[in-house]
Amino acid sequence: MWRSIAARSTQVPRNFHAAKKVQSTLIFPHSSSKPSLYQIPRAFSHLSATDPGNETDLSSPSFSQNEYTQMDPPSTENSDIVENDDTQIDNENDDTQIDNSMLFSENGGIQLDNLSAEEGEAEPEIDMEKLENVLSLLQSSVDDSVESTLESFDLDLHEEFVVKVLETPQVLGENLIGFFKWVMKQPDFKVTTSVVDVLVRAVCGSMRKKDAYALWDLVKEIGEKENGLLNVESLNELIALLSKLGKGKAAFEVFNKFGDFGCDANEETYYFTIEALCRRSIFDWAWSVCEKMIDTGSLPDTEKVGKIISWLCKGSKAKEAHLVYMLAKEKNKYPPQSSVNFLISSLCQKDGTVNLALGMLDDFSGEARKYAIKPFSSVIHSLCRMKNVDGAKALLSKMISEGPAPGNAVFNSIINGYSKAGDMQQAMEMMSLMESRGLRPDVYSYTVIMSGYANGGQMKEACEILSEAKKKHSRLSPVTYHTLIRGYCKLEEFDNALTLLNEMKDAGVQPNVDEYNKLIQSLCLKAVDWKTAEKLLEEMKEKGLHLNGITQALIRAVKELEEGVDDGVASIEA
């Protein structure tokens, strides 16, 4: 029996003279029977052993089996265990040492640790010469004759050999794929999941578009032939490669084949597929993947959730991105603050989604709320745009009590909202509240209030605001004066409008084309005062300002009309 075991082992040769020394531990059971040393089979008849008690040579031809069995056992005085037996295997031609590779069992048998406990067979060895031949072939330029060349190598294919080839660096991905295709055709080789994983990892490291498509064709062929052979990790790595290469449609094709391959998509699958599609701006397909992700509740980590939200917002899908945010909130995977701010800003761009942004503000707390002035300002500005100024005012009150502290921009949005609505009392109250909080109303604040009064024909109140603005600010903007000039022209008080225009020049604020154009049109159409309009036109030319052709033609038409009327009157009088 022991001869057959030794013959099957690849680590322990049949000729035991190839080894020099065996270190073993002999265990003697507590019984009257002979120790296990005397149960060593005849397979060791070639061994040269030295007994500690005498120098009898077991390898001597004159030493018979009967003498061996009658030999006195080693001394067991004071102990049943003999430690560190010095049994040796001598060989004059080989210095190989087998260390702890053979152990004596308790019943006198031999346990070889390189043998399978059940089958008694060792792992297959790799023929290094043949391996080098294959690698030399694959590392060179491979042509159509690669299969015939591989056939000539007479390879003993097994999983360890194939994995060794696939894991070798500096081999082109297309050559690895060609080698794997040839291996699949061999009847003695069975493709396993682990081998496919090694192939995918090796090819995905090349970052070549041609290799990526060839790998996908091969993986698809494998998956269609045997269901369950592919795993989600390999497919995810393939999708990630296609994403990096900007091949969104191909990545989506891999994603759609998961069910056919018997694989269940996980959070990484969804993320890499969405990334690939958004990189190509295919946002509708990306959202279809997001819907499946939301249905399964499989979310990646918070950083990746934030990226998905940002991608959808860039694709004008803020409402859909809000659904991803709500799922992340439910699973306590809060995205980065920058992604949340971007989502709120995107929701505020459309009136129908502003309330979603308003609801998200309640999720801010602590330090995050303290520095969230931008998202709060976006919501208040949008509410005022929707003419929901009271809602904006309520949010302002919440900011004052809970934070973040509102600034000029927040107050100006509400003041402008009330001014446009004609509610000047509320606008003035907002300005007073602004000042009570230590904020200084800027030129914009005064201008929007003056505009509200001017639109309502309350020029006296508007001029009072102008006087107050002059006290607080040494230099006003052209828009401030333009607002009042327009108000006077609306009331056809052209003298006051001209006075304000001159005051504007004295204050160092140069009128622009809009002021001149509005005033000239009003003078021509309402006052029929082409002479004053003509003077303003000359003034514009001196300043290098250009009046549009329509207004210039209007001045000429009014002038000709008045001159024609005067000539007609003169002829009648004559």
Structure notes:
- By secondary structure, the protein is mainly α.
- Among the domains are: 122 residues, no CATH class; 63 residues.
- 59% of the residues lie in helices and 3% in strands.
- The chain has 28 helices and 4 strands.
- The strands form 2 sheets. Strands 1-2 form a two-stranded antiparallel ribbon.
- Strand 3 and strand 4 form a beta hairpin.
- Helix 5 runs parallel beside helix 7.
- The longest helix has 25 residues.
- The chain starts with a helix and ends with a helix.
- The N terminus is likely disordered.
Q: Determine the strand fraction and express it as a percent band.
A: under 5%
Fraction of residues in helix: 55-70%
| General form | elongated
Residue windows where pLDDT falls under 50 for at least 5 positions = 1-120
Q: What's the rounded overall pLDDT mean?
A: 80
Q: CA-to-CA gap between the ends?
A: 151 Å
Q: If you compute it from the alpha carbons, what radius of gyration comes out, rounded to the nearest whole angstrom? A: 47 Å
The largest β sheet comes out as: 2 strands, antiparallel
In which order are the strands of the major sheet placed?
1-2
Q: Which structural category fits the helices and strands?
A: mainly alpha
> Can you count the helices?
28
The tally of beta strands, per DSSP, is: 4
Key features of this structure:
4 strands, 28 helices, two-stranded antiparallel ribbon, 59% helix, elongated, single chain, two-stranded antiparallel sheet, 574 residues, mainly alpha
Structure summarized in a few sentences:
The protein is mainly alpha-helical and 574 residues long. Helix content is 59%, strand content 3%.
